[in-house]
Amino acid sequence: MTSQQAASGSSFYAAMRILPRAQREGMYEIYSFCRQVDDIADSGASRESRLAALEQWRTAIAALYAGNARPQLATLARVVQQFSLRQDDFIAVIDGMEMDVLDTIVAPDRDTLDLYCDRVASAVGRLSVRVFGMLDDDGRQLAHHLGRALQLTNILRDIDEDADIGRVYLPRDTLAAAGIVHLTPDAVRAASLDRACAPLVADAREHFAQATTIMARYPRRVVIAPRIMAQAYHALFAQLVRRGFAAPRERVRVSRARLMLAVARHWLF
């Protein structure tokens, strides 16, 4: 499967495909890497084999940065050099996937949740903003805020689906404050979670606002892809807030038509 094929089924494909060719290729390669390590973490293979596969990726990334990229990573190696992508950010993504393999995450503390969001989302953002050509400090801040906004939205959207596979990403302190004392996936799935989700909703809202402020400082052509992603996810976030988090929770998603409307708006204006 090519990098473009890997990306074609994602909600980010429309945002990526409108970029200039070099940036588009860079984002496809980053996405392909993330997709492959994520597939390892979520596969039905044994814990030992998944850890071994992630370790193989660490070895492959180290070899790439040492100038000995495997043939199948030749394009990624060129993208790394072209956009000065940092090895630590690739490793952070792998570390984030490993968190889901080493121990099933159930009601983590706030620090653990924030570390998870940094690794699986903001680290991807740190790679992406270098492709977009943002200034280093602004880029890292955008990656911090937008990455967390997107990941918190994912967590709020996927409460029941995550519980189905034994995971609970809602933090234990917010669950406890809402009176939920049995912190098991089944108990959380059956609970009305408006109070438990309220702090995450507030955090996501603030991260979206901070990301919007940063992007407003740049010409539209520089931040067109993160703007589209932010708009699509903010629309999803707004639908989740309107629906609420009382059980039973109806699945919420942003239609492809709405995403394409966001793309068209950026092209036209």
Short description:
With 269 residues, the chain is mainly α. The protein contains 14 helices and no strands. Helices cover 74% and strands 0% of the residues.
General description of the model:
Keywords: Plasmid, Transferase. Its EC number is 2.5.1.103. InterPro entries: Isoprenoid_synthase_dom_sf, SQ_synth_HpnD-like, Squ/phyt_synthse, Squalene/phytoene_synthase_CS, Trans_IPPS_bact-type, Trans_IPPS_HH. This protein is mainly alpha-helical. It is 74% helix and 0% strand. It contains 14 helices and no strands. Helix 3 crosses helix 5 and helix 13 packs antiparallel against helix 14. The radius of gyration is 19 Å and the shape is globular. The two termini are 35 Å apart. 39% of the residues are buried. Mean pLDDT is 90; it is low at 1-9.
